Amino acid sequence: MLLVKKNILIFTVLTLLLLALFITDLFFGSVQIPVKNIIQALFSGNSGKEEWNLIVLNFRLPKATTAILAGAALSVSGLQMQTMFRNPLAGPDILGISSGASLGVAFILLGFSSMLGLQTGDAMSNWIIVLAAWFGAGSVLLLIFAVSLRVNDIMTILILGILFGSVSTAIVSVLQYFCNEVLLKSFLVWSMGSLGNVSGSHLLVLLPSVGFGLLLSLLTIKMLNLMLLGENYAKSMGLNVNITRFLIFLSTSILAGSITAFCGPIGFIGIAVPHICRMIFKTSDQKTLLFASIIVGASIMLLSDLLSQIPGNGIVLPINTVTALLGIPVIIWIIFKNQRVASV
Amino acid sequence: MTPIIQTHQLSVGYKSGSQTRTIITSLDIAVSRGELIGIIGQNGIGKSTLLRTIARLQEPLNGKVTIYGQTIDSFSRNEFAQKVSFVSTEIVKLNHCTVRQLVSFGRSPYTNWFGQLSSNDEALVSEAIEMVGLTSLAGRYINEISDGERQRVMIARTLAQDTDIIILDEPTAFLDMPNKYEVIHLLSELTRKKKKTILFTSHDLNIAMREADRLWLITPEKFLDGAPEDLVLQHAISNLFDETRLKFDSRKGEFSIRRKPIGSCNLIGKGTAHIWTKKALERLGYDTENETYSIEITVEEKAGTTRWHLIHEDNTQTFNSIYALAGCLKEMFTDRNTNSALG
Fold first, then answer.
1. Between chains, do A284 and B111 touch, taking CB under 8 Å as contact?
2. pTM above 0.90, yes or no
3. A300 burial level (CB within 10 Å; 0-12, 13-18, 19+)
4. Buried b / exposed e along A35-49 (16+ C-beta atoms within 10 A)
5. Does residue A317 or residue A218 have the better pLDDT?
């Protein structure tokens, strides 16, 4: 079919774009390194200068990889939530799920780290932090879901999501107030998290986590398609709605939670990317949109990372600022468009 | 033969918290294959609740529903979806979803975990779209087609789902007159040609009576079941409207508004013009079948033109349209009322 061929073409172009952005992201940074030496560092591990090796292999490569993981994970999580809640403005940050993840991490870092003997950087504590983030994200998601069973209005649910997010943030502040200086410092370092803070040892946790979350999301494609028509229709077409919800919640909590655990809250990607994909592919088919969200989400994160490093001087903007500047116009556009059609 | 659907002492209603609201109690009813059943009743009487209970979207309060002699709960969701399909009142609004894509969702109970359509699935989807007459619109987005067409898409989806039983909750609710008739007629055809068993709720008694094999009439007091004509003969339908301003004419099979007559008229004439003049007089509130009368109207057809002569208190007036006649009658009535009010 013509349509399928067109989609394959778009996917090819997008994948090439992603590849180009990934390479570009390795080439640019606050320190200028000649292209030749970067390639040497990547392939032979030796660029001639020890510090260049360090920058490329221990900083830029993990950072670019993290950008890809973060973009893909947040976008897929946003897509799942928009379909699940049948709400075009749903996303991990707006519904307070990222804040929930932060709260989970705060509890661990501020409350129990000495008890658990956590050492920043070791694999065990990385996993504990990620688990705490999943748990926090999942709890907020369940809360929002419970509300959405009683309240039908899209806007009310969004506002409640924002409130839950604020409550989480407030609890985190209270925790900070009561804990000792050492703990506070380790938490503050975490909360300022950015793509660049993710080291190789973090990646060993982040990569399998996001991989598992994405794998789960692939299993939910058919369910998501049926959920588009609403719960009654989904049930009448043989869908077990409880299993569906469980899988989608699990996958979303893992995806959004893992990223928040290591990169801190990154806003607006989760809402905006699925809509950009809908615009590009003009389809509501969740399989197309899911793969598209992975590729487009990763590309936009890489682009945001590139934009955050203002070339020529050493200034690096927080990644959250750049994603907000890129994402908010898309969201405003959705709100205006939804004056006419309220649907995903 | 086992009935395709059967209810056993079925009670339906809502449970919210500790409160239970029973709407229909102890219903025993059986449906045979290939029947088109219209469920009629006032708002809030429990039509949809009954329908949703049979469609397994809601738990019965008591009793059970069986299909093919088996309790509906004994099927897995997926097995059940291969036997019963459902169309809800909700209007599906989806951006960028084509007619074909929506219809193909109907294949879900048969496809693998990833929803991959086989060539057989594709063929059944095309067939379903053709059956509802939408082949030319298959590639269109569902937000771009009319409400009537969208309802047919939802029906095509149930055909793709290939179930013997189709349940529709108010399939005509948002449609204009011609589309209401078309949708119900389509359902009737499906029962004849495809041996589908179809249950639907509706407010359009007129349409339901014309197409359904059987009506279930739900009133606060009882549950009536029978062919539409049987229900008319039992005065069930005219009784239904006893307390409303609507009147059901058992002879004509028509509804009219109950009016207090404002006068009586002797109508003389024949042919189509006579019939429609009579309708106009009824609309204005004149009784045309009374022995005594205050006005007389003669309908005269001569050389292709029609004239109406009105005799009232020895004055004769002639009109060349019903509109003009009606205008005069209305004025007469208002004058009389104002005079009596003043006097």
1. no
2. no
3. buried
4. eebbebbbeeeebee
5. A218
Half-sphere exposure of A339 (CA within 13 A, CB side): 4
Q: Which of A7, A152, A236, A279 to mutate to test the interface with B (most CBs of B within 10 A)?
A: A236
Q: What is the mean pLDDT of each run of 10 residues along chain B (343 residues)?
A: 89 81 88 94 86 93 93 94 93 87 95 90 95 93 91 95 95 89 93 94 88 90 89 80 72 74 86 89 84 87 87 87 90 72 52
Contacts 24+ apart (CB under 8 A), B250-256: B253/B209, B255/B205, B255/B206, B256/B282
pLDDT tens digit string along A11-52?
999 999 999 999 999 888 777 788 888 888 888 777 778 888
Q: Which residues of B touch A (CB under 8 A)?
A: 55-57, 77-82, 84-86, 88, 90, 92-97, 101-102, 105-106, 108-109, 111, 113-115, 143, 161
Considering only CB atoms, A341 lies closest to which of B57, B105, B143, namely B143
CB contacts < 8 A (A, B): 84
The beta-carbon neighbor of A278 closest among B95, B111, B114 is B95
Closest residue of chain B to A227, computed from CA coordinates:
B105
pLDDT at B288: 82
Query: For strand B214-218 and strand B36-41, is the pairing parallel, antiparallel, or unpaired?
Result: parallel
Task: List CB contacts (< 8 A) between A278 and chain B.
Answer: 95-96
Find residue B40's DSSP bridge partners: B202, B217
Closest by Cβ to A343, choosing from B77, B80, B95: B95
Q: What is the mean pLDDT of residues A103-110?
A: 84
Considering only CB atoms, which chain B residues are within 8 Å of A229?
Answer: 92, 94, 102, 105
| B246, two tokens | 């609507």
pLDDT in tens, A186-199: 777 666 657 877 77
A278 at B interface, C-beta within 8 A: yes
Return the CATH fold of B263-342.
Double Stranded RNA Binding Domain (3.30.160)
Residues of A in contact with B150 (CB under 8 A): none
CB pair distance less than 8 Å for B78 and A238: yes
Q: What is the DSSP string of A77-130?
A: HHHHHHHHTT-TT--TTTTTHHHHHHHHHHIIIIIIHHHHT--TTSHHHHHHHH
Hey, what CATH class is B5-249 in?
alpha beta
Q: List CB contacts of A210: < 8 A, sequence separation 6 or more.
A: A69, A72, A73, A254, A255, A258, A259
Calpha distance A109→A102 (Å, rounded): 10
Q: Could you state, in order of their start, the residue ranges of all structural domains in chain B?
A: 5-249, 263-342
Q: What are phi and psi of B94, to 5 degrees?
A: -135, 130
pLDDT of residue B10: 93
Instruction: Give the residue-averaged pLDDT of A72-81.
Output: 96
The DSSP secondary-structure symbol of A19 reads H
B130 contacts B100 by C-beta, under 8 angstroms: no
